[in-house]
Specification:
The complex is a heterotrimer of chains A (231), B (225) and C (251). Chain A is mainly alpha-helical and 231 residues long. Chain A contains seven helices and no strands. In chain A, helix 3 runs parallel beside helix 7 and helix 4 packs antiparallel against helix 7. Chain A is globular, with a radius of gyration of 20 Å. Chain C is of the alpha/beta class. Chain C has a domain of 164 residues: Rossmann fold (3-Layer(aba) Sandwich), CATH 3.40.50.300. Chain C is built from nine helices and ten strands. Classes of the chains: A mainly alpha (231), B mainly alpha (225), C alpha/beta (251). Chains in contact: A-B, A-C, B-C. The interface between A and B is medium-sized, with 30 and 34 residues.
């Protein structure tokens, strides 16, 4: 049983690596150029293949944290908490990636490192929520209390994110939208690359989750052994 | 109903305790004034006159938010410090009564500070804030802020980091309230009718209803081991 | 493991459910197990003193019975009802005296008691407040804020708070710790009153002598399990000491 899970993990990791490499190729080389005037603009546009899938994973990860939190509150079982924690850690990194890639895109496109457009704003807020979540966990020593508090915060924050998005949307709709051309959507020829990247990143997230959950379980086992020996 | 009587008892207890020392209240008030003064001063260095009034709604709500955080912190830290939270947990009542009691007393303290702030604000920012509709916005914003803040404060008061952690957790989550409150306040100052601001009002009402409901369902997990 | 000397219960007691019943209670904090399966039955009117070294799990057990802490496993029944399900209603019958006085320093003694009277829905609140203040000898200082009280007075007021709603089940977790002589005497007389009123009491303490004084039954908790329990009758201090040493000598 243990062997089979290890095998799946190895396969999953390998598959995700392959997918990511393929996605890289597609994004940087394979996909057709965007219909933009400047050359740097064209290069910068390619970041959409990272930026949006990363954002997708960033938000998906928080949904998983939310579900993990609910599961823990209902069952009081550590495994739900492990899932919530792992997803939060991975989500933080991805969300940071969104902010960075958004920044890299913004500079050549609008000559500014940051824009308060609705999507970046909500990503920043989500990132801050993640940071808060991890900080909350680090300040509670008792594992059961830590899991409970984190779960409650996960629920509260998860419900606030859509409301946040609505608020920001309404707020931003009173301002001229920053990027009109990209709103028009991608050309059909780009769609394949885009969806491929979306799937690749999701698989990569799954692989990372598996690794992280496994790591945390091992940590728990070590702790339990320590207690047995010393207790 | 017995439940409401107990909620009222908690509110009454908080009021009496605060009236004795006036500690929290004075801290909140002084802090809010300081925020207003500093904002006004800092902005005035670069922009002046009419344009300073543009930033007035934002400054107002930042002041309220920080004063609110002070109030929220004290609401639970004091209970936790003296171990009094257990006294509340031992009582034959649903633990959510603690949540509602604390939330109401926090709202009350915040409202008193906010109403006293308005004249100060008028003096510094030169905007006329004596408008009933504004008071309604202030009320709705305060309810939303305290609604989320109370349950988060109950949590953070029990952690190692305590006071420091609350703003980190609260501000991203309470962002919609602040956005809506600032926009609505600005709308009133700009002379918009309530109808034109209906979106913001809806957002405030939604927040004011959803979060206490969520807190009601999860509060037990925060206070019971 | 030592012989469990179980108390013969009278026929009358057998018909009513025990005031407190704990079955296979387990509590762990993360990987640390505080209670490893505690079984205890305390009939109505019994005064049980629970002895045990530090870290044995006494406070944890008390907190679980008081409904402050959720058990990790097992059940707690108070007067036959599951504490997990009927906690809100059952708390009316529970009183707890522990390390924390649970009093608000900025409020007066009277205001503190009035607050708790409201939380416990006492119909005759004012009368009860007068009565307990008299009993603990703080009637003269009733209008003074608690933060002006001396330590001993705070403890006496804490006792007053605990008996205000006249609970049928009284839990005292090392109540003698740090009490001055006056407060200790006060506590002793309150406990004697409880015994007379046939209240059910669990007392935890390190002090073997004080613990044995009023109890009708004694038990020793060690490393999260009941290592010994038996009736008070026939036990003197020396015997108890010997039992305690044996019960707590290693695992």
């Amino acid at each position: 049983m243990r062997d089979r899970r290890e095998t799946i993990l190895v396969v999953l990791t390998a598959v995700s690596v392959v997918l990511i490499l393929a996605a890289l190729y597609l994004a940087l080389v394979g996909a057709p150029d965007a219909n933009l005037r400047s050359e740097t603009g064209r290069y910068a546009q390619r970041i959409i293949y990272f930026h949006i899938p990363t954002a997708w994973v960033g938000f998906l990860a928080f949904f998983v944290t939310f579900v993990g939190g609910l599961g823990f509150l209902r069952t009081q079982k550590r495994s739900w908490d492990i899932v919530a924690l792992s997803s939060a850690e991975i989500g933080t990194v991805f969300m940071f990636g969104v902010l960075v890639s958004g920044s890299i895109w913004a500079k050549p496109a609008w000559n500014t490192w940051w824009v308060w457009d609705e999507r970046l704003t909500i990503s920043l807020i989500q990132f801050l929520v993640y940071v808060g979540y991890l900080m909350l966990r680090s300040t509670v020593e008792d594992p059961s209390r830590r899991a409970r508090f984190a779960a409650v915060y996960g629920v509260v924050a998860f419900i606030s994110v859509p409301i946040n998005f609505i608020a920001i949307r309404v707020w931003r709709s009173s301002h001229p939208l920053m990027f009109g051309s990209e709103e028009g959507g991608l050309a059909p020829s780009m769609m394949f690359a885009f969806f491929f990247c979306l799937i690749a990143f999701t698989v990569w997230y799954a692989a990372l989750m598996w690794h992280r959950v496994r790591l945390e379980r091992l940590r728990d086992d070590v702790e339990a052994l320590k207690q047995k020996l010393l207790g | 109903m017995a439940y409401l009587r107990k909620v009222a008892a908690i509110v009454w207890k908080d009021i009496v305790a605060e009236l004795r020392t006036k500690e929290m209240f004075s801290t909140m008030f002084v802090f809010a004034v300081l925020v207003i003064v500093i904002f006004n001063f800092a902005f005035d260095l670069r922009i002046s006159g009419e344009r300073v009034r543009q930033v007035a709604p934002g400054a107002l709500w930042v002041a309220f938010a920080f004063a609110g955080i002070l109030g929220l912190n004290r609401a639970f830290v004091a209970e936790k410090d003296r171990g009094c939270l257990e006294g509340l947990l031992l009582a034959p009542m649903d633990h959510t009564a603690i949540y509602f009691g604390k939330m109401l007393s926090t709202i009350l303290f915040m409202l008193v500070v906010e109403i006293l702030m308005l004249p100060v604000f008028t003096i510094f920012f030169g905007v006329n804030l004596f408008d009933l509709r504004l008071l309604l916005i202030v009320l709705m914003g305060t309810v939303g802020f305290a609604g989320v803040g109370t349950i988060l404060s109950a949590m953070t008061a029990q952690t190692r980091a305590r006071e420091v952690l609350l703003p980190i957790l609260l501000l991203p989550v309470a962002a919609p309230v602040l956005i809506a409150a600032v926009k609505a306040t600005a709308g009133i100052l700009d002379g918009l009718s309530m109808g034109e601001m209906v979106l913001w009002l809806q957002l405030l009402v939604a927040f004011d209803l959803i979060f206490p409901a969520v807190a009601f369902m999860t509060f037990d997990y925060v206070v019971k081991e | 493991m030592h012989e469990q000397a179980t108390a013969p219960s009278g026929a009358a007691e057998r018909s009513a459910p025990p005031a407190i019943e704990v079955r296979r209670l387990v509590k762990s904090f993360g990987h640390q197990v505080a209670l490893r399966g505690v079984d205890l039955a305390v009939p109505e009117g019994e005064f049980l003193t629970l002895f045990g070294p530090n870290g044995a799990g006494k406070t944890t057990l008390m907190r679980i019975v008081a409904s402050l802490t959720r058990p990790s496993g097992g059940t707690v029944l108070l007067r036959g009802q599951d504490l997990g399900k009927a906690a809100v209603a059952l708390r009316r019958h529970i009183g707890l005296i522990s390390h924390n006085p649970l009093l608000y320093g900025d409020l007066t003694a009277e205001e503190n008691l009035r607050f708790f009277a409201r939380l416990y829905d006492l119909a005759d609140g004012a009368a009860r407040i007068d009565a307990v203040l008299e009993q603990v000898g703080l009637a003269v200082r009733r209008r003074d804020p608690v933060r002006t009280y001396s330590r001993g007075m705070v403890q006496r007021l804490a006792i007053a708070r605990a008996i205000l709603h006249d609970p049928e089940i009284m839990l005292l977790d090392e109540p003698y710790t740090g009490l001055d002589l006056q407060a200790a005497d006060m506590l002793g007389s309150v406990l004697a009153d409880l015994v007379m009123a046939r209240r059910t009491v669990i007392l935890t303490t390190h002090n073997l002598e004080q613990g044995l004084e009023l109890c009708s039954r004694a038990a020793v908790l060690n490393r999260g399990k009941i290592a010994w329990q038996g009736p008070r009758a026939g036990l003197d201090l020396g015997a108890m000491k010997a039992i305690y040493r044996q019960a707590t000598a290693g695992a």
